[in-house]
Amino acid sequence: MSGPPWRPVTRLLVANRGEIARRIIRTAREMGIVTAAVYVPADADAPHVAEADAAVVLGGGSYLDGGALLAAARAVDADAVHPGYGFLSENAAFARSVEAAGLIWVGPPPAAIAAMGDKLAAKQLAGAAGVPTLPTASGPEDAATVGFPLLVKATAGGGGKGMRVVHGPAELAEALAAARREALGGFGDDRVFLERYVPRARHIEVQILGDHHGGLVHLGERECSIQRRHQKIVEEAPSPVVDPILRAELGAAAVALGRALSYASTGTVEFLVDDTPGADGRRPFWFLEVNTRLQVEHPVTEAVTGLDLVRQQLRIAAGAPLELRQGDVALVGHAVEVRLYAEDPAAGFLPAAGTLHGWLPASSPSVRWDSGVEAGSVVGTAFDPLLAKVIAHAPTRAEAAARLALALERTHIAGVTTNRDLLVGLLRHPAFLAGDTTTDFLERHRPPLVRPVDAGQLWRAGVAAALWLQGANRAGAGVLAGLPSGWRNGRLPDQRVTLRRAGTETTVAYRRGRDGSFLVDGRAVAVIHAHSAQAIDVELEGRRLRARVTRHADRLVVHDGSGDVDFEVVGRFAPPGAADPQGGLVAPMPGRVLDVRVGPGDAVLVGELLVVLEAMKMEHRIVAPAAGTVLEVLVARDEQVQTGQTLLVVDHPSATGAA
After folding, report:
1. Residue 445: pLDDT band by 50, 70, 90 thresholds?
2. CA dihedral 50, 55, 59, 65 (to 10 degrees)
């Protein structure tokens, strides 16, 4: 089979943002390819913009504007376009427009994208290729033939958007409506379908790699079972339960489907694998979908195979044949990846927004950081809240997990709430280490959502914060800067700093001695060995603490070696201002009001849905924390709201809820 003539890529437009744009730029540069970035005004200071050789602002103000992307390619004389993932990476019309403009499309043929873009059509093609599929229906009238529980899934989507689990007929109408809204917002297509839901299953996918000359191989499997809101947060290669026989079966099914598509470039064939072996000891599996692009979790496959998948994409797009055959593929060691998100696990994984005032990834142990942010980056609500992918590769699975957990633990993050503590606890959880990693892992095993901080850790971090603050105040003193902290010509009370964490206040009292040491809380001796604008090295009761410290507004974030402790510095006098209305339910994040379900005077029950918000193309439900009566509704449909804005007032609710 003859393929297209060799046409090298010399100038590449990266039609994406964030960590994947930086990832593509890195490999392209190593291959001697000039790169050009695109950006919207909100991303003007983003790292990917600075790292490319050229950058073009998108006139349409959107990464989904295909015309603006092609105009950017012309502006920089690009000869190729790499779409990354998300956005237009699986848009066959955009791929065709790139090729029609005489540019190289770094991705699979548009025909393959179109064939797999409709999930129902993809299932039919998989069945024709002999790959097992789950019971499916296109409309709610056929729900009984699928059976409950079932999934409502977006026909044109992925990434958890437009997806709802339905346990019985009474839930179906609401789930369909919500899934259609999310699918329309995320993919511009509100079509959905129904599929049998397998509660105890593993999400296992096979990486395929094909060229335009008939070459096609698989690169083994990844397991991506641990998810929240149907979105992956932990990925690994190989799977802890896939043996050589099952690997061969999955690989053969993926290659068969790839050949049916005449597939070229990277792609991923996703399967659901039953966690309960059958009578023959084998695990049944079913086809889910094909992702016709580079996957977020591709680094774990790169780690165990030694291949650079972006390099492979660029070579294949240029017309080169594959450099390997199936027998050349070997999986070495084990790799684990986690997705570090700006989100609040304790609040139902709501996305978090803010400025990364502190961002210092651990320098050791050695792991791979694929990040789209840096210190000072603003995390908004317009895009996915992924901060970084962190990947560890080691000879064994246990060692990879331990290395990754320690690297996360030693990383300093300030200004934005993240899922870091959950990831650390998950990687060290006995069930994870035992390989019990089904899609319901979080519900069954409930790893800690936040880092537990005992009284001793909290006290030491508080002392470090207080002593760092006194040093910072002395360094910034405008008068008498040479005097030591707390100097008096008479005996007066100790200096005091009040810190608040999670609603609990702690006061640290300290007095400086003549030898430069400090007496803390009337009992402990502290010696400061070093102090800077970003850190403090303090010996407290003979125990050394080297803490990274970030100050922003009235907050101090202290990294004590095991994670970050976030304090609010409590002022001596309460600032004037109106108190929040009693019974007010507030917006947990910036977003748009999609629906208001109640009005003044309505009686509500605990857990009843009151308001639906949309942020980052996902829906978030505000529910009644207690029974009561609605007194005021302060927002309307389509209104933009900010974090903390009062949405409505209910008489005497006990808390604010979001599910």
Report:
1. very high
2. -90
Q: Could you tell me which of 173, 89, 156, 72 has the C-alpha nearest to residue 121?
A: 156
Using alpha carbons, select from 476, 460, 416, 454 the residue that is nearest to residue 559: 460
Mention every residue, 6+ apart, whose C-beta is less than 8 A from residue 632.
Answer: 581, 600, 648, 649
**Using CA atoms, how far apart are residues 529 and 447, in angstroms rounded to an integer?**
37
Look at 98-102, 117-121, 288-292 and tell me which has the smallest mean pLDDT.
117-121
- Is 493 within 8 Å of 521 (Cβ atoms)? no
Q: Nearest to residue 373, comparing CAs of 45, 657, 37?
A: 45
Name the more confident of 185 and 499.
Answer: 499
* Res 23 pLDDT > 70: yes
Cβ atoms of residues 153 and 137 within 8 Å? no
Cα gap 511→135, rounded to integer Å: 72
**Which domains, ranges and CATH numbers included, belong to the chain?**
11-106 (3.40.50.20), 135-196 (3.30.1490.20), 201-445 (3.30.470.20), 458-569 (3.30.700.30), 584-658 (2.40.50.100)
Distance CA(420)–CA(387), nearest Å, equals: 11
Q: For residue 12, what are its two tokens?
A: 């590449």
Q: Which of 471, 497, 470, 643 is nearest to 567 (CA)?
A: 497
H-helix segments, 435-541: 441-445, 455-475
pLDDT, average across residues 8-14: 97
Q: Which pTM was predicted?
A: 0.85
In the β-sheet with 628-633, what is the strand arrangement from edge to edge? 584-586, 646-650, 628-633, 603-604
The residue among 421, 365, 426 whose CA lies nearest residue 391 is 365
Task: Say if CB 641 and CB 622 are below 8 A apart.
Answer: no
Q: Is 452 helix (H, G, I), strand (E, B) or coil?
A: coil
Q: At what angle do helices 309-317 and 18-30 cross, to 10 degrees?
A: 70
Structure token digits, residue 437: 């990693």
Question: Do residues 106 and 265 make contact, with C-beta atoms less than 8 angstroms apart?
Answer: yes
Say if CB 66 and CB 97 are below 8 A apart: yes
Structure tokens at 71: 């105009």
**Residue 206, SS3 per DSSP:** strand
How big is the chain, counted in residues?
659
Instruction: Give the Cα separation of 604 and 590 in Å (integer).
Output: 25
Q: Is residue 6 within 8 Å of 318, Cβ to Cβ?
A: yes
- 162-187: burial string, b at 16+ Cβ within 10 Å, e else: bbbebeeeebbeebbebbbbbbbbbb
Q: Taking the CA atoms of the chain, what radius of gyration do you get in angstroms?
A: 27
- CA–CA separation, 217 and 206 (whole Å): 10
